[in-house]
Amino acid sequence: MLHEIPREKQLGIMRAMLLIRRAEEQVIHFNEDYTDLIRGHFHVYIGQEGTGASVCAALEPEDYLFTTHRNHGHVIAKGGDPKRVLAEIIGRETGYCRGRAGTFHVAAPELGILHTSAIVGGCLPLAAGTAFASQVKKDRRVTIVFFGDGAMEEGAFYEVLNIAKLWQLPLIFLMENNYRRSQRGLPSHAAAELAAIPRAFNVETRVIDGANAGIVYKTACELVRRARAGEGPFFVEARTHLWPGNYRALPKLIAGETKINWAWEPDGVPQAARSWHAESDPVLLFARELLKQGETSCAEIERLDREVREEVAEAARFALASPLPDPKAALDLDFAGGRDN
Ligand SMILES: Cc1ncc(C[n+]2csc(CCOP(=O)(O)OP(=O)(O)O)c2C)c(N)n1
Ligand SMILES: [Mg+2]
Q1: Among 226, 220, 195, CA closest to 65
Q2: In a domain, 252, yes or no
Q3: Is the minimum distance from the CB of 239 to ligand 1 under 6 angstroms?
Q4: Structurally, how many domains does the chain consist of?
């Protein structure tokens, strides 16, 4: 699989995955090491990096991306500056949305991320809108909408799936199935197989291992190319195993920060998360794949990780040193054009 992906691309995906992992660990530190830095609860993308990083590596900068309450990883993967992402998460004026959006709604129009909604399924109709605009304008931009398995319980999902197929929109539905809902023990969907639903709407559908970055990248390249050529829409179900620190709405580093050498020295993984890191951690799985392929050494991967850690530490310093928005300006951005309009 990996031999089909240029080495520079492989290392770019590894770097993006590490950047997301280290940034999300920092977000958890923001919550655990400080008081009231993050107001309310939050979600992290740990465990799903193989999907977001690899899909975004197949996109062009001008392509549109929509995401969810679990958005930090997608914004970074689309080229987001970790400084501005972390600053937004802790509500600072230097954040992508000038501190007004916070952890749940990080959006960056300059990266093709026009809006982020924490309403489950909330971005699906908006994604159909940009895909329709691209079709009308013939600008060859593709829209990708990330959402969780839970969004397939929402009515908007079915309307968008239907109209996207009828109008053959350049839209890719990227459903990240982390089985979080079913872990509560209650069935949350009547369908035996979620992928059967888009198939019933005659939407070409792939079910892939979302923790296998190589497979995700290859699938995304093909579908993005075909969506750009007018063959869309497409549906992808990317399956991952829920990171055990993620179960509740206040994620915890139950095994501490990930050590990259666990990829080749698995005995070091603490018992609390041993089986997950050994079998399901997309970052460690991809590092292992690179090593197996033989063109990348442990030292190179460690160097990449060190660089990324420094970048995230610098981003955290930037975010913490940034000012909160001026309370008097709270209403300034309510309406396009300012409060006088
Ligand atoms: C319309 C709506 N209903 C309920 C919620 C509360 N809620 C937040 S996350 C979540 C679970 C969503 O599951 P999924 O879409 O699979 O995302 P995951 O957290 O598993 O990544 C729910 C029900 C919400 N934000 N919006
Ligand atoms: Mg889910």
Answers
A1: 220
A2: yes
A3: no
A4: 1
